Amino acid sequence: MVDIYRLDKQKLSLPLQLLLRILAVDKNDAWTEQAGLFADMDWDAFIKLARHHRVHPYLYTKLKEIGSGYVPAPVLRGFYQEYCNNTFIMLGLSGEMERICQVFEGIGIRSLFLKGPVLAVDLYGDISHRTSCDLDILIPIKDLFRAEKKLEELGYRKDDYIDSVLNDWKWRHHHTTFIHPRTGIKVELHWRLNPAPSKEPGFEQLWSRRRLSPVSSHPLFYLGKEDLFLFLVTHGARHGWSRLRWLLDIKQILVQSPDPVMLKRLLKANRTTHIGGQALVLASQLLDVWPQPALLPLMAGNRPGKLAEEAMFYISRMVQLHTLPLPEEVERYHKRHLFSLMTVQQRGLFMLSFLFPYPEDAKTLPLPKTLHFLYLPLRPFLWAWRKLQGERHEKGIDRLL
User: Fold this and answer.
1) Which bin fits 154, alpha (ψ -120 to 50), beta or left (φ > 0)?
2) How far apart are CA 100 and CA 58, in angstroms?
3) Which Pfam families does this UniProt record tie to the protein (predicted)?
4) pLDDT tens figures, 50-105
């Protein structure tokens, strides 16, 4: 018998409780016994939650099943309009995804699509049931500059937010971002699934386990089922599971029954067993989906449960991690949570990374590129100088996002 940590759900708002319940239930015949959940509901707060958690298109399909006897007609109409809008967005992303894939293929660049329409079809069976605001494409790092050049030829403009000293971008970051000024479509070119100090399979391993997506007549490849689970749980954990969409993805992939032996082996090899356990605790207790018996040991012990309890901070407060600057309380909490997700070895590597030069060092003392190696011994002194001047320290752990 596996002893599983019990989450504290007492302080969740009534709209959030209803949202979780609707996402959890697969059949509408249970609602006659739970009519009280809809009584005196603050529908404005409910709608705000659905939008924040990016689950409104999937939610519309469930609300339509429940019917107007429980859900006000104006609320249903509003969700239907957003469902239609999302369908048009996803169709546009599907077409652009195929175009980029063909262009990359034409110059010999292999690509794996991480999310977007391929994920919607794989997990939900319909591109309309999941939201996506961009295309995430994983390619070998050796092809990065050629891929960037092709995107620019297609009209995309690079968002040059990455400053780098001594090529630290290769491990401090994990993707570059391009935006098309006419269509507004955003493309993230990944050379890693997550930023360092995470451990993960290399591109060749992921490519060898790739799957062919049915979303297009042109061959489009995406991650194997177990690799997808690894990516989704590490991505969700890194963002504090602040969007229920990511947890709903975990529910959908668990329904597909991934290979438990391969999954446990993959999580162990990449030192993410505790993160997989965190996702399973959250999915089982918030969305009422339980993994196969062979995966239950991942949920055992204090660490997965405590990490899941930490994630409740984000879920219960509608935390917006991508809206900067973060409130001071959220920033402090998130730094601690990211650190708690790391293994002992990863924490050591992360602390050592502070000894490697940061872009702020080059701004404090500009040197010719041929002398950038001097930033290595100068790093402690430049850091101390900025502290004396009262400047804000490097983002450090925030770069993991």
Assistant:
1) alpha
2) 27
3) NTP_transf_5 (PF14907)
4) 999 999 999 999 999 888 788 999 999 999 999 999 999 999 999 999 999 999 99
Please name the residues in contact with 251: beta carbons below 8 A apart, sequence gap of 6 or more: 23, 24, 283, 287, 289
Helices and strands, counts by H and E, the chain: 17, 7
Show the 3-state SS of 268-323.
Answer: HHCCCHHHHHHHHHHHHHHCCCCCCHHHHHHHECHHHHHHHHHHHHHHHHCCCCCC
The Cα–Cα gap between 129 and 14 comes to 24
The whole-model pTM stands at 0.92
Q: What is the spatial distance between Cα 180 and Cα 157, in angstroms, rounded to a whole number? A: 6
Q: Where are the domains of the chain?
A: 1-10+225-353, 361-400
- Asked if residues 76 and 114 have their Cβ atoms less than 8 Å apart, the reply is no
For residue 39, the number of C-alpha atoms closer than 13 Å in the C-beta half-sphere is 5
The span from the CA of 251 to the CA of 20, in Å, is 12
Render pLDDT for 330-365 as a digit per residue (tens, 0 to 9): 999 999 999 999 999 999 988 888 888 888 888 888
